[in-house]
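Deliverable D5.2: sample structural annotation.
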Amino acid sequence: MRYTDWRHPFESDSDIFLQYGRVYGDAIERIFQSFRNNVPRHDYSMLPVIALLRHFIELTLKGIIYHCQGVNYKQITNHRINELWIQAVNEVQSRYYVPDLLNQVDSIVIHFISSLAEFDNFNEFGRYPNRKNGEPIRYSNMDNWLYSIVIDLGRLYETSKLIIDSLEGFGIYIKELESHESDMRREFGDLNRDLT
């Protein structure tokens, strides 16, 4: 049986990671649409949303990092979203010199990434009932702020939407910076070359 590779041959790995992230964001929206028609009977029904949202965050941040590093990017094997978040911010700031970048991202997004990473740094919550070591994953180990979002369908929906919109906007923002950088190079040449 032959399988179709949907990748465009000229797409960068950065674009592919961002597109994969978008698919996870779409899946979250579809789950919430189904919840509108059939209200979930148990808070476990929200676990796939958390798993998909966490993976959306990871893929999108990796796509942003790869975009900033260019064609010679370093493969990321890390799945820790707090470390990926810090690396993505640092890469954007160093590549495009955006000193107030964190002021442009909603504090809820930053708090969610930090809280989820602190609770589940190994990407197990929402995917398994137990950690890899066999220990049960307990809500009681989650901070109150994150717990209040995870158990409330409306808050989880609003927070998911905010995170998806913010991180996708972050990806679009760096592509605009890239375009601006290319325009400047065309108009003024390579400034680094001219300074040496």
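Annotation notes: The first helix runs from residue 13 to 37. The chain has a mean pLDDT of 85.
The annotation will be released with the project's public dataset once the embargo ends.
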